[in-house]
Amino acid sequence: MKLIKFFCLFIFVCIFLNLTGCEQEPPKDNTPIASIIVMGNHANSQSFDVQLDTAIQKTYSSFGNIGIVIVDGIPTLLRDDSPTGILGSYNSEYLKKSKKVCKDSNTFWSNNYLAPQTKKITDALKTYYADDPEVDTLSALCTAEKSLNTIGDALGTAIEKEIIIIDTGVSTSGALNFLNPEYQELLTYNGKLWEDETMSSKVTSLIDQLDKQAELPNLEGIRVTWYGLGQVSSPQQPLSKLGIQNLQYIWETLLTKAGCLSSTEAGNSGEHNIFIPISSSGSIECDQYVTPIPWEIPPEPEIPEQKVFFRSNLPAYLLSDEETESLLLPYVSALSNCSDKMILLVGTTSSWNGGSLDLSAARAEKVKKSMIKLGVPENCISTIGLGYNLSICQNDSPDGEFEEFIGKENRSVLILPYSSPKAQEILSQNGEDHQ
User: Fold this and answer.
1) 343-385 residue pLDDT tens
2) In 3D, which of 240, 247, 244, 245 has the Cα closest to residue 299?
3) Residue 61 neighbours by CB distance under 10 Å
4) CA nearest neighbour of 264 among 54, 421, 66
5) In 10 A of CB 351, how many CB atoms?
6) Is the dihedral angle over the CA atoms 278, 283, 285, 289 positive or is it negative?
7) Which helix (H) or strand (E) covers residue 283, if one does?
8) Which of 109, 254, 288, 351 has its CA 20 to 30 A from that of 369?
9) Is residue 376 within 8 Å of residue 332, measured between CB atoms?
């Protein structure tokens, strides 16, 4: 009888605890996340289409906290009159209690607790702007690091730390200042910094100097994700694609020196996986412009139109391989740093024996392989074989008899800028897709 009473009491207690909302603590592997969003809201920046709702809710769901640092000449952590004093940072015990109250409905908890908190953060990202005419992104990172420590101390437990940056990275003040000629030189260099031993040494030396002057943040154990690097807006003169790549190399060298962890969002686009390409729409609507950097961006190399000649009935160069490759070298500088440019290789033959589509295509592929060997990206090259086609070939039998001196001009590959009217006409006439 006593055993039955004890069992009934046990069942009653379990039901009572369930009704009052008691539940176990979060799983031990649900480590709280402390996040800082570094936001470069100024009129010289493009307006980025960054969706952070998932990342924000993930942080709150872990019973972690968030803060926002606005990037300008004196970066600051946004504060409010909440109990924590930090905009977007909530008392973790409040979050835990709210989760217990809603233990039987995660949807209710998400809609009534997480969604309002997330909206408060996303609204703040759209409404807080730079309030002085300079940008000090490096100082903003140092502020973010210190803010993470403040949030971590308040949580009072082991945490994961992350910094999300939405900024052009084009600083105009502070220790890393692109108004400074030595930094301007790096961005306007007409080549890849990391492939030039002298220039890459300059980058390393400048970052080492910042480290010695205690200007770098300590990002050990902090995961960094960066959106919008180099995507500036008027009145700032835009960077070329090469300039953006070099800007990324400078910041990547700095962040790696500071000890940051790779982003979980960046995929495998780079060695350190920090930077994420992002779409944009116009400029940020803000009254505060940043002092434009008056750099001279080198003009992108032109893509010349040129012919490469071949031996009769063969996909073999008329000149030696070495001589022909010297003719192709200008395309390396014109295309290797300009991922949005392409060329069209048009293979042709003479009319001897009726010409040959296969031979003309093989000639175009021969030139393509030589260009790739020299360093032209494969995705920048398109090929087509036309055989003997009078839309592009010379009539080498004007009197009904084959004329060798004309025919040899048709044994060739014509190199054209892909977007040129001539290339587009060839593609259109031959039923090829074209831009």
Assistant:
1) 999 999 999 888 899 999 999 999 999 999 998 888 899 999 9
2) 240
3) 19
4) 54
5) 20
6) positive
7) strand 280-283
8) 351
9) yes
